[in-house]
Structure prediction request, 677 residues.
Amino acid sequence: MLKISDLRAQIDDKEILKGLTLEVKPGEVAAIMGPNGSGKSTLSYVVAGRDGYDVTSGSIMLNGENILEMDAHERAAKGIFLAFQYPLEIPGVTTMTFLKAAMNAQRKQRGEAELPTAEFMKKVRAAADKLGVKQEMLRRPLNVGFSGGEKKRLEVLQMVLLEPKIAILDETDSGLDIDALRIVAEGVNALRSPDRAFLVITHYQRLLDYIVPDSVHVLSKGRIVTSGGKELAHELEKNGYRDYVSEEAA
Amino acid sequence: MTTQPVPLRTPAETALADAYVKASAALPGSDAVRGERARAYDRFHEKGLPHRRIEAWHYTDLRALMREAYPVAVGTPLAPASGLRILISDGAASMPTGALPKGIKVSTLRDCLTNGTEAFIKSLFPDQGSDDAMVAFNAAMMRDGVVIDIAEGAEIASPIEIIFTSQDQAPHGDVSRVLLRMGARAKATVHEVHSAKGKVQRHSALVAHVGEEAELSHVFETRDAQPEVHVSSLIVDVAARGSFQSFAFVCAGDVLRRQLFVRGSGEYAKIAMRGVSLLKGKQHADTTLVVDHAVPNGESRELFKHIVDDEASGVFQGKVIVRQHAQKTDGGMKSQALLLSGDAAMYNKPELEIFADDVVCGHGATVGQLDENQLFYLMARGIPRVEAEALMIEGFAREALEFIVQDEIREHLEASVAHWLAGRAKS
Prediction:
């Protein structure tokens, strides 16, 4: 599904990703863990296609297609979804308007017809109800004045509606209380399917109690330094990242 | 010994002064009106065209922008329209045909200038704003326009449209004035729509007296081609518990100066002025307003949004005056600008002059660009950059447009924003 090979990326001449290699298979939930400053967020931005990062070598393949030359919106239409750590507020644009613009923009790029309004409304309502997103929230400007939990729920709502091939969850647990975390995790788990993959980026093991990963990868200083099963997350929680960080330094 | 500087007149100033001298004998009006005109002319003559050393005109140097003064046209009224629609073509007004709603009376200014009572003259030439050279020029030169009287308690449901156009293809100026008098508890919406054909210098003024507990909603709109230079003055007085709401939609015109002189002369008067300007090319739009709280318990709100592209420039100057006795005044002023190009410019100057000690007044002014983080967020959802920008610009404008209570007008203006953005996407 997603194959990252020897990826090197820099911002303002500072190299952040230093030869990162990672493969995520269809249906797999891969967790990326790592200390602050290891390049976790950079990885998510570079995969999603944010401007300002200079990829100096390596490749990112999505289902056999190199996506590095694509703009962010093209990658989204190809099936990459990034759930933001801090979803942005867009004043004056109602959530509903935004959802419709996003869904139709992706459909247009894929050569599909626009979604009829009635069908769109039905889809949104059904998905919103499941996630406990109130209708009133959908009429408000996107994320403006939403609580941390509401914003994250809305990220999951977008994920549900946009049906990505691979979803990257960037520190989705940050700023969430336990109830909100459970709702968000349930939303994600409901989307797990044999033809969809997840890249769950997190600092703590806590999220992985709710979204149980198939594989865990430790990112340190811009590279994957070790990989394992879900038990690796528990080990990290107990011993911290010290072993891996120092190993890398040695 | 001091030396008096001798003001040097520009050819345009000389032409405008000559225009008055030549036309004065033929300008309509009773002797009292002639007296007012003469005094106004003297004020204009003394000051000349406003320039950048005049603080209120610092960012719109009319003396430099109006190198040439086109001859002021004597317009011919167009065939009248039906409904509540008044046409002002090259300054000449046509009254609507057919029955008007109960409680509204419309007359041509040219008739009123000749027959008007003392009270009429007083209301047509208010002190507010009279020091401004261009308000004075308008007072001296107006030939026609419209006088609208709304009776006590009358509620005029549909908007009164005043459509300003020009017919003459040769370069010319047009001058007109609208007087609106609303009795106590009257309610009305006035929708001022401006367009022009050919090269036009327009001098329009709207003088409104909002009675006690009366409610005036005003919309100013530029539609299609615009004058080269347009000076639009709005002079409003709001009596006790009266309400004045104004919205300006500006999306065309080379040089537009809107100046608003608004006074809350009765307690609990409510004043709100908002607007959206979409500027491109080398357009220049200036909104300069003065809100004068003369008595206690007044309220005022201003919200202006400028979207400035290419080499265009926007100006917002807002002055809120709270007089010594105007305790408990509640004022809030905001000006926000989005610059879409490196060469676009925005000049913001909010001012508060507060002489009372128990008031709540605030102002804020921001100038920024589209936020790259927000753009990335939208693009990461599949929305191409140009569309994402359009969505954000629309959202920015909507925060002001949503204050327009007349659904039809709001939707029409929202469509105009979308049209402007579509034009931008193509270029």
